[in-house]
Amino acid sequence: MISRRNFFQNSELPTVTFGGASLSGEGGGYGFGEMSEKEAESLIHAAFEHGISLFDTAPIYGFGLSEERLGRYLPKSAQVVSKSGVDWHESKRVNMSNAPEVTEKMLHQSLKRLQREQIDFYMIHWPDSRIDIRVPLEVLRKAQKEGKIKHIGLCNTNVIDLQRAKEICEIDAIQSELNLFNQMPFDSLDGEWKDKFSMGWGTFDKGILTGRVTPDRKFSPDDCRSWAPWWNKKDVLVKIEKTQKLNHILQEFNLTLSAFCLHYNIQYYGVSTSLVGFKKLSDILEVVSNLQINISKERIEEVLSLWNKTRS
Length: 312
Hints:
Strand content: 15-25%
Oligomer: single chain
Number of strands: 12
Low-confidence stretches: none
Number of domains: 1
Structural class: alpha/beta
Mean pLDDT: 94
Largest sheet: 8 strands, parallel, barrel
Distance between the termini: 42 Å
CATH architecture: Alpha-Beta Barrel
Shape: globular
CATH superfamily: NADP-dependent oxidoreductase domain
Radius of gyration: 19 Å
């Protein structure tokens, strides 16, 4: 089994976590294009069979479809991450709220969709400036005592919320964006994440750091990259150019983009697990193969130094 020792005593969790937004398929919401029910089933089974046993999801991924598919096809021995806070109205207009009644409702909806009595990691998805973080955490702490949640976590959080959270409960896990283009979310936590189970999402920056996002690539309407305001074409083009320069350097070291980006998160930056979105079996096999490669911190620093020179 592909795993990495973490801070939980007598426990192991995988170095790579399955990013469940890819399962959104035709459900819409935050997702990355079409995926049939059969494809989703095969992908979940393949990931688990190849040693990936931690699966991350959220209600907004496919407006519940990602959770439902994991509920139908994921073995109960696998561990699951889900989140509260990004809800939606009947019209499917997104409603971001950490209000206690929303938190409680979303938790119970996720338990039902995932077909589980307990969620291994339950996180507050995003900070809500209108609601003190301690308020929804009171709800989650109560649910934890009732056995509905094993570990409580904060996603996309900040130091102030982490400090306030300590007044209510133990925060076991932290999840933030982490890739070659964005280390700031973790850096801004002043090292608070280092004694937690740390999860880095956006490992390949929504495909840019795989080299598969090209300047002329078009995305389907059910792919959030076709409409999301954060998918700014000008910024994407700049990143594509930088990625191409990095790839040229990596070729000299006989390394691939995907291997380097994965080892940057895990080996160089030191997070407990790196979230990866898979769309097909070949994606899983590529990542599993990359985990067998040894890339030293010194080699990563050497490549980064050369890459930075091309950007100066």
